[in-house]
Structure formats: C-alpha cells, structure tokens
Amino acid sequence: MESPVDRRKALKTIGGLSAVLAGGAAAGVAADRYLRSGDSAARTEKPAPALATAKPSDRARGHGMITWAVETRKKLIALTFDDGPVPNYTPLVLDALDEEKVPATFFLVGRTLTRNPKILDGRIDRHEIGNHSWLHKSLNDLGDYEAVRTDLTQAHEAIAKITGREVRLLRPPFGHLGAVPMRVADGLGYRVVLWSQGVVEASFQKDPDSVIPYVVDNVTPGTIFLAHDAVNTYEPVFLRRLGPIIRQLRAKGYEFVTVSDLMAEREEGATLITTKG
Ligand SMILES: [Zn+2]
C-alpha cells in the first residue's frame, strides 16, 4: 500500500511531468499553432526564422518522436542520470552500478564533460551515453535553428572526442522542447528522450530512506527513470541508496537496460502503465 505521503509525492512528480510534456507536445503541432500556444516564442512575438534556416546538409526525416516511456509487458526499467560527469558523484553512481552489474544511460553536458574528461575513462563500456546539450540552457531560449544546432553539435563533438562514441539520444535540458529544438534534433538524427518517473533529491532530505519505497513501489514496466549524478545543493539520498533500490527492484522481477535497449523492446498492443492504480 502506498502511504498518503507517497501519493502526494507521486502526484507532485506527475504534475511536474505533465507540465513538461505539455511543453513537449507543442513540438508535434504545426508551427503556426506553436506560435499561438503561449510559450516563450509567442510571448515575445518573435517570428520563427529558425524554421526557414535548417541546414541543407542536415538529413531531416520531417517529423520527430519523443519517448518518455516504452510500452512493454516485460519488467524493464532504464535508469538515466543527467548533468554529469562530475567528480563528486558520478564515480559514486558508477561504483554502485558496477557493484550490481547493471547498465544505465548518462545524459552528458558537453561543457561539463570537457572540464572532467577523465571521469568516464574505462568505466562506461556497459552504459549508454546521450547528449544533454553543451550549455545546459533551455533549448527554447537559445534562439534560432543555427543557435540550437551549434549548441547540440558542440556537445556531440566533445562527447565523440572524449568518449569515442557517436551519440544518438538527446535529452533536452529541463525537458523543454519546442518546434525549433525538435527540428534540429531531427536534422541531426537524434531521438529525443524524456522520462516517465524520477526523483527530486530535495523531497527526501528529512527522511532519506523513504526514497527507497518511493522508487521501488512506483516503478512500472517500461519506465525511463530520471535521476541526476550532478547534485549541488542537496545530499544525494537517491544516489547513496542505488544499491538497495536496484536489489529490491530485482527482487520484484525488474531487469535494468539502457534506454536504447528499452526502446527496442516496444511491444505493439502492450498497455503503458504510467501511474499506480
Ligand atoms: Zn539537466
């Protein structure tokens, strides 16, 4: 049974997520509706020059897809960690994942990676990595197609140089998405990944162990789970309890996979369970 406190926390999380997804949904509609939709472009009454300046060299498909969970009957979960790599907590996360021999997906900030180029050395063979932008600013606020493209390309190239990998997943900072970032992601061949569940470390500072049942009781098949390995202001209660959380989820039959492996498990007709009961 989930306690009233847990339910409040869960609702808070879901409320936050729906706000994010409402922003993300704007990406899928026509540009004219986007401009009337009340987002920053509409408020500042700027035109959308970005939509006319896509690089001819970009091989766009002409549409975009956002994944925040995967329809599957299998008990699969993809843990994701954003904003690193940083010296204080990324190794802690990697140690816990090594200990339990589970893969995860790290969405790297290009500038942060460039400042800490050695942290991932020899440690990410099992894991997937993705682009979390160069500056970690909302892509909606960067400007036109060229500005967003420059930011994402700079991160892409830094990740390639330092890790030797060409990444294909994009998680936009703060989950903010509009028509321009979606079109750039399409032009660069990225798949956009958000999340269906996650933890806010600040919520568990007074009762750190409550983060364990909060996660274990609420995960559902096909979950893409958001966490951060770069935590500045708060004690990283979730990161420090990764081991028991992984073990308890395993005891419930869950298997841990990367985001790409999870997306490959999509089953036609499987019902996506995004909330309990
Ligand atoms: Zn972030």
Q: Beta-strand percentage?
A: 5-15%
Structural class: alpha/beta
Mean pLDDT value: 83
Ligand species:
zinc ion
The separation of the N and C termini measures 11 Å
Q: Examine the secondary-structure arrangement and name the CATH architecture.
A: Alpha-Beta Barrel
Give the CATH topology.
TIM Barrel
| Count of helical regions | 10
- Largest sheet data: 6 strands, parallel
GO molecular function: hydrolase activity, acting on carbon-nitrogen (but not peptide) bonds
GO biological process, one term: carbohydrate metabolic process
Protein name: NodB homology domain-containing protein
Domain NodB homology: 75-257
Can you describe this structure?
This is NodB homology domain-containing protein. One of its GO terms (molecular function) is hydrolase activity, acting on carbon-nitrogen (but not peptide) bonds. Residues 75-257 form the NodB homology domain. The protein is an alpha/beta fold and 277 residues long. It has one domain: Alpha-Beta Barrel (TIM Barrel). Helix content is 36%, strand content 12%. The chain has 10 helices and 9 strands. The chain has helices spanning 4-25, 31-36, 40-43, 90-100, 110-115, 145-163, 179-187, 211-218, 242-251, 259-263, and strands at residues 66-67, 76-82, 105-108, 128-131, 169-170, 191-193, 197-198, 223-228, 255-256. The strands form 2 sheets. Strands 2, 3, 4, 7, 8 and 9 form a 6-stranded parallel sheet that branches. It has a 3-stranded parallel sheet with strand order 1-6-5. The chain starts with a helix and ends in a 14-residue tail after the last helix. Zinc ion (ZN) binds next to loops.
